[in-house]
Amino acid sequence: MTAPQSPSEGPPRIFDPLRRQARLARSAARFAQADFLHARAAANAAESLEAILRDFPVAVDLSAHSGVFERAVRTSDAAARLGPVVTPLSPAQRAAPGAEALPLADGSADLIVSLLTLHCANDLPGALAQIRRALKPDGLFIGALFGAGTLKELRGVLTEAELAERGGAQARVSPFADGYDGAALLQRAGFALPVSDVDRFTVRYSDLFALIRDLRAMGETNVLQGTMRPLNRRIVARAAALYAERHGLEDGRIPATFEIIHLAGWKPHESQQKPLPRGSAKTRLADALGVRELTGEEPD
Fold it and tell me: Which residues, including other chains, have CB under 8 Å from residue 169's CB and lie 6 or more apart?
């Protein structure tokens, strides 16, 4: 049994970086067969950059799978405003974002992009803070990570099947961040003008086994910390039956929910728009709304 972690030891270790690194390495040969989630996140990042009419001479990609973002942005209207996209992370650093110092000098990048890897950070605010430090003042961060609704159907049927077969169950699907926390996470890490948006959608599969094949090709199977007792055939068969029974569609397929949290934030700079100081308003709210202000002294 692992001894409880004291507060001085830092954030809890939820994810196993060695397991994550092995999953990503194993997925490399098959990733192109199941890159649609990363391509969707990359397309969103490229679309965001199209709306920002400024140059980014030094662009850095910290994504779990390199190359997806650059392919998307090079075919977008933002292509001419980006310099070469640098991918500086080692396999170990891609597997455990924030665990080691970024191989980037402070204040060296105009743009940093991280697609679908920060959901495996044991210290997400710390990883974001490292990214902020590596940006130049008024530099931009664009990120995407899986949100809390991801694989909710799979989480439920695996837990129920293992409970039925063994009388107890281990977590098999990672806990993901809540989409409503995105802007707050950026603010906590020191970003200015934070923006967060949630993209929730459903993918249809022929059965549970087709879904698992895609997750393996993405490198997104279980990377939780601790000893994992393997699932046996009886548990997997029961989970597949439960999935079809509880969530099966009319065409015989099953749905898998995915939720991608898109983030954007800027490193603070004096030129950025700032909120007005408290008490500096020149127009009363009641006047602006066209209503009568009640002072509490009106007669009954």
Answer: 158, 159, 160, 162, 163
Q: Strand runs (DSSP E) across 52-99, as ranges?
A: 59-61, 85-86
126-132 long-range Cβ contacts below 8 angstroms, 24+ apart? 126/11, 126/98, 127/97, 127/98, 128/98, 128/185, 128/186, 128/188, 128/189, 128/191, 129/189, 129/190, 130/98, 130/101, 130/102, 131/62, 131/102, 131/189, 132/189, 132/190, 132/191, 132/265, 132/267
pLDDT tens digits, residue range 57-97?
Answer: 999 999 999 999 999 999 999 999 999 999 999 999 999 99
pTM equals: 0.87
Q: Minimal CA–CA distance to 16: which of 228, 159, 177?
A: 228
Reply yes or no on whether the pLDDT at 299 is more than 60.
Answer: no
What is the residue whose two structure tokens read 């923006």?
A: 195
Query: Are 254 and 248 contacting, i.e. CB atoms less than 8 angstroms apart?
Result: yes
In the block, residue with structure tokens 């990503």 = 24
- Alpha carbon distance 69, 252 (integer Å): 34
Q: Mapping DSSP to helix (H, G, I), strand (E, B) and coil, where does residue 125 land?
A: helix
The residue count of the chain comes to: 300
Where in 6-157 does DSSP place strands (E)? Answer: 59-61, 85-86, 109-115, 135-146
